[in-house]
Amino acid sequence: MNDNTNSILSARGLKKSFDKLEVLKGIDLDLMPGDVVGVIGPSGSGKSTLIRCLNMLEIPSAGEVRFKNRQVTNKFKLSGDGIGTGELRKKVGMVFQHFNLYPHKTVLENITQGPIVVLKETRELAERHAMELLEKVGLLDKRDVYPSHLSGGQKQRVAIARALAMRPDALLLDEVTSALDPELVGEVLQVIKELAEQGMTMILVTHEMGFAADVANRIIFMENGVIVESGLPSDLLQSPQTERLKSFLARHLRHSIR
């Protein structure tokens, strides 16, 4: 565990229950500047719930989330020493499995909506930044296209550009390739890899084990709502310490070969 004084995001004793089902059972986590943390584990292990709690899309049942050492509350606006969810979401971007683009807005309008409405940027500034981001994700020629005319991979790249348009301190990416056809996965992973190389701080929930090993500086293995192992990708994936992780990797590798 890192000293969290300089962390961008940290969790302490984070728990989340849905009725009687305890999904997170006391998670401690620090996300430091420049970290790329890969979160792996079987379905139902709490991975997506964890990052949704870190962004307060799900309100934790217990424990706390801190952003730059300020406690996050479940109030949208907050004055004082803490930080409300509205301010947190300006600083911590989220990219979802199913894109969540506005179908009635063009690609450019999808990307500029947040900066204009939330950050109060001028349209000129927001559009100039959006064009830079579209160039970064290889979709400059799609600026005036509606989402229904994009492939899944293109939609996900637009979703990443939209999150980056808010100039966040960190990105949370939740299974961003799992809804894509296999041949479209690579184009999205390439964008994420380039962001990692540029120093973007990220938490990446993924089933793409090889990709996580390639871009992450740390991997977390979750099962049954707890972090079972955490460490360097080479250590976790090549020399797992627990039977639970060994079993998971064996199953995953068998599935990948089929």
Short characterization:
The chain is an alpha/beta fold and about 260 residues long. About 40% of the residues lie in helices and about 25% in strands. The chain is built from nine helices and ten strands.
Descriptive account of the structure:
- By secondary structure, this protein is an alpha/beta fold.
- 38% of the residues lie in helices and 23% in strands.
- It has helices at residues 47-54, 85-91, 107-117, 123-136, 152-164, 182-197, 209-215, 233-238, 243-257; strands at 9-18, 21-31, 36-40, 62-67, 70-71, 92-95, 170-174, 202-205, 218-223, 226-231.
- It has a 6-stranded mixed beta sheet with strand order 6-7-8-3-9-10, sandwiched between helices.
- β9 (218-223) and β10 form a beta hairpin.
- α4 packs across α5.
- It is globular.
Percent strand equals: 15-25%
Number of helical runs?
9
**Which structural class do you get from the secondary structure elements?**
alpha/beta
The largest beta-sheet arranges its strands as: 6-7-8-3-9-10
Dominant shape? globular
| Total number of beta strands | 10
Calculate Rg over CA atoms: 18 Å
Mean pLDDT, to the nearest integer, reads 89
Q: What is the N-to-C order of secondary-structure elements (H for helix, E for strand)?
A: EEEHEEHEHHHEHEHEEHH
Spans where pLDDT lies below 50 across 5 or more residues: none
Q: End-to-end span in angstroms? A: 37 Å
| Biggest sheet layout | 6 strands, mixed
Give the % helix.
Answer: 25-40%
